[in-house]
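Protocol step 4 of 6.
Sequence for Kelch domain-containing protein 4 (Bison bison bison) entered exactly as in the expression construct, tag removed. Do not edit the line below.
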Amino acid sequence: MGKKGKKEKKGRGAEKTAAKMEKKVSKRSRKEEEDLEALIAHFQTLDARKTQVVETPCSPPSPRLNASLSTHPEKDELILFGGEYFNGQKTFLYNELYVYNIRKDSWTKVEIPNPPPRRCAHQAVVVPQGGGQLWIFGGEFASPDGEQFYHYKDLWVLHLATKTWEQVRSPGGPSGRSGHRMVAWKRQLILFGGFHESTRDYIYYNDVYAFNLDTFTWSKLSPSGTGPTPRSGCQMTVTPQGNIIIYGGYSKQRVRKDVDRGTQHSDMFLLKAEDGSEGKWSWTRINPSGAKPTPRSGFSVAVAPNHQTLLFGGVCDEEEEESLEGDFLNDLHFYDPVRNRWFAGQLKGPKAEKRRRRRGRKAEPGGADKQAAKGPSAQEPLEVVREVVSEDGTVVTIKQVLAAPGAAGQLESDDDDGPEEAGVAPVEPSPRSNAMLAVKHGRLYLYGGMFEAGDRQVTLSDLYCLDLHKMEEWMVLVETDPESQEWLEETDTDEDSEEAEGAEGGGEEDEDEDEEEEEEESGEEGGEEHPSVAPGELFADYLPRTEQHWLRCARDSVGPGAPERRVLRAAQALAQAFYDGSAEGGPREARFPVA
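Step 5 output, structure tokens:
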């Protein structure tokens, strides 16, 4: 009796602590979210000026991650929405809608009036009713420096038949968040987890909500049993039996001031509607067998034709006191909910290439570029270095020497002197995290994502396809060259030195030079309309609420006692940098109505 009482008391204490933390985060983030709300509202005003649907054939979308890739329920199409991109200095957010026609291998940009605001790390679910509907909830908008965030709690539906966006306003839904997961279950949308982050604090969630697609109402579920701890970025899929699986995810907690410790979860839970009822749910922890994926975050998930869950890639982080290093992955894993078992996805290699050539034969000249896209063979011996992560997390480096052409995926060690045929390294997506996956007609499509090379973040825009029935080889539909991607180094030192010079003297000359540069930039633009800011508008005209915010940030930046003129210059620079990164199409002048 006593032990049970203590356990219940401890549970209530944890709930109170979580509630206090959520209130604390909400209070601190309210001000910065108000600053971003004005910018978001301005973008929505500009989007509202579009009065008709415009469909434009286009090249593949620009690099991005944390977008959503969905399959059309009736057509051979993939739908890409939102996402983010970081070029080393600024973060760009998108609310663009692209459609990929599978049969024609072509992209179309679809501009629809009144779309959801720019966002990333949202969730998108397709349901078949009404000619197809794409439901979107939550996500986040970030300032260009990545230090401020606005977390959405809005719900949108794209009516695919009529190509119209609609915001569905219903009370009692989840709080603003990103990194959550959402699935279609019967005639409901079930949402789990996610996180909310402000400049100083953050909170992770493990709550469950249901949205009824018939009544358009939210309800918060209270499953019995012990469920997952708060987390984001987990796997959430529906089993053939009508249950919901939650696997893995990521969360972090503060161990001391300014030091956080991340956790890559690898546990699995079953969320079940008791007796098939939609009102009563229960949590059960399950322990699957088989070749389990190594702990990771940022992995991507899709559902295979046989109702198995497919998991791709991600990153395995190694955290030290003041540093974070990650090993990016590109492996495939399948979870069979009927057998409660994991198994690794192994590619067989193309049948037509097997036993075609012997080791030591030279490849025929010509067509090298086309061969490279289909799983080519090398004309010269090739040393391939691969890192394999074992189940316990150990990284094993394997060196292989591949000579003469052969079957893709049939790698031969340089220790093997036998007459076996050798193949080259198979064509496959590079290791990455936060990619987008979708399955259509038994084929897996993979788009974009990111990986890190030193201090550089490489964002991808490639598109791959894998036949899940044959499991032979990846096919490259859109190639990308990471080396050609723009990467801007930070220039904080230069900006600080310029501000210092302005504070010490020579201010009038600096102002004259700034005005000349502005005139030159204006002349170069040639009056071209900015896609996010109408010509002739000034910063104070469309963001009057944030003027004091920029002045406050500037005073924190330059320090107490700084001359007011220097504070104004710093505020101008901060506001300008913000607008440069929050709108597409290049810089935009931002001035304060202060002398």
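Step 6, annotate. The domain at 22-348+429-483 is CATH 2.120.10.80 (Neuraminidase).
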